[in-house]
């Protein structure tokens, strides 16, 4: 009976994790370049006490295996802001500190460098890009011009094993893998929207909530049955 509680509890914990992930995706639906997450889970067999671990005599439990990031592209949205940049295709903007991002909602920092909203400088082929001037233009090849003078080219990097990328604050990623520089078209005055389908996430969140409530009722039923058996045996 206690195994029944543990099995139901494993399902409830998994569904709670699902709810957290769906809520996080919905909360970031309007964040430029945000990549939605999914949970990969695994089942395993726990054997019946004092018996060989045969599948037919066991009980299946579930647990979270890992959180997977969906790197599919989002729609490009026109903003008209010359500091907003979007990558058409694969790759990430390289930032100082070993960070990489698809969020091209950039600004000019206090030192005159192109930077993210949380103050990480955007890297070019020769280091941080200084954009002090009146007019900033970025062509499709990622070359940056200030007052019609080239000041460098955006460094765009891609990775063979994207699953090794770890999400950090600000929608950026870090990894131990050495990325490779690639050529991707850059659109100035555009931002890549998140790849979150809000209504789909909400439906899945509600489904997970109902399943979580079902597991709660199962745990309660097992607990009541266990209490009843204990009381009967006591009599």
User: Could you state the order of secondary-structure elements as H and E?
Assistant: HEEEEEEEEEEEEEEEEEEEH
- Total number of β-strand segments? 19
- Helix content percent band: 25-40%
Number of helical regions = 2
Decide which structural class fits the backbone: alpha+beta
Percent of sequence in beta strands: 25-35%
Shape: elongated
Question: Which whole number gives the mean pLDDT?
Answer: 84
* Strand order in the largest sheet: 6-5-14-17
Q: Largest sheet, if any?
A: 4 strands, antiparallel
Give the N-to-C terminal Cα separation: 20 Å
Structure characterization notes:
This protein is of the alpha+beta class and 235 residues long. It has two domains: 2-71 and 196-234, no CATH class; 76-192, no CATH class. Helices cover 27% and strands 30% of the residues. The chain has two helices and 19 strands. It has helices at residues 2-27, 198-234, and strands at residues 37-46, 59-69, 76-78, 85-88, 92-95, 99-101, 107-108, 114-115, 123-124, 127-128, 136-138, 143-146, 149-153, 156-158, 166-167, 173-174, 180-181, 185-188, 190-192. The strands form eight sheets. The protein has a four-stranded antiparallel β-sheet with strand order 6-5-14-17, with no helix packed on it. The chain has a three-stranded antiparallel β-sheet with strand order 11-12-13, with no helix packed on it. A two-stranded antiparallel sheet has the order 1-2. The two termini are 20 Å apart. Residues 43-59 have low confidence and may be disordered.
């Amino acid at each position: 009976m206690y195994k029944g509680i543990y099995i139901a509890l494993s399902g409830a914990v998994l569904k709670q994790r699902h709810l957290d992930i769906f809520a996080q995706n919905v909360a970031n639906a309007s964040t430029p370049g945000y990549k939605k997450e999914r949970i990969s889970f695994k089942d395993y067999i726990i054997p019946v006490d004092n018996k060989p671990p045969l599948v037919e005599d066991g009980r299946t439990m579930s647990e979270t295996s890992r959180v997977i990031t969906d790197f599919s592209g989002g729609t490009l949205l026109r903003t008209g802001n010359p500091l907003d940049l979007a990558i058409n295709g694969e790759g990430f903007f390289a930032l100082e500190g070993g960070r990489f991002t698809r969020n091209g909602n950039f600004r000019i920092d206090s030192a005159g460098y192109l930077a993210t909203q949380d103050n990480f400088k955007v890297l070019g082929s020769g280091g941080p890009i200084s954009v002090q001037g009146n007019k900033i233009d970025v062509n499709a090849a990622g070359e940056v011009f200030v007052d019609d003078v080239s000041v460098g080219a955006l460094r765009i990097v891609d990775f063979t094993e994207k699953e090794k990328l770890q999400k950090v604050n600000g929608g950026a990623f870090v990894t131990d893998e050495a990325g490779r520089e690639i050529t991707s078209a850059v659109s100035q005055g555009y931002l890549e929207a998140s790849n979150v389908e809000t209504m789909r996430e909400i439906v899945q969140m509600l489904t997970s909530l109902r399943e979580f409530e079902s597991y709660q009722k199962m745990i309660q039923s097992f607990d009541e049955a266990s209490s009843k058996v204990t009381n009967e045996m006591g009599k």
